[in-house]
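User: Please predict the structure of the protein below. I'd like the answer in structure-token form so I can feed it into my own downstream comparison script.

Assistant: Understood. Taking the following sequence of 171 residues as input:
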Amino acid sequence: MALTKLNSASVIERLPVGSVIQTIQGTSDSRYTLDSTDTWENTGFVSLTFPNALQSNSKVLVRINVLIGEVSDSGWAARTALTIFENSTNKGHATYGIVSSSAHDNGSANTVYKAESMSGELLFTPSVTNGTYTLYCKAPNSFARTIGGTANTATNTPVGNTQVTLQEIKG
């Protein structure tokens, strides 16, 4: 029997709606200190671009997994938000991003040893077919937060692998 070569367009056309077309992931073991007030900052952890242009009717599913830490500065339990920017456009909520939480220990000095795991996901319609996706963070007040681990940087304190996964979903 002769083999028939299928081009990628015909394979994608045959996939049911909701199928994953392509996946990309970025990870970082670094820490980023956020200390500005209410401004989205690029963490520099990931900059991802899909290897193939997105289909015109596709959606993108983003998953964010990260550890956060904070200092004890009479402002404990205030949120730290994370989101994805597609080029210069925030794809999450303007204030809360895709996920937000706090890492606190009742406002005590022990807060610098506390880490909180955050995970969030969002399905969105991309505005371009070849965008670059980057991880941003934001907080409403200026005391220092740490993305990627605790505020204390001793070698035995928690450090987490920040993960961002994006999938093109057939529309």
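That's the full token string. The chain has one helix and eleven strands.
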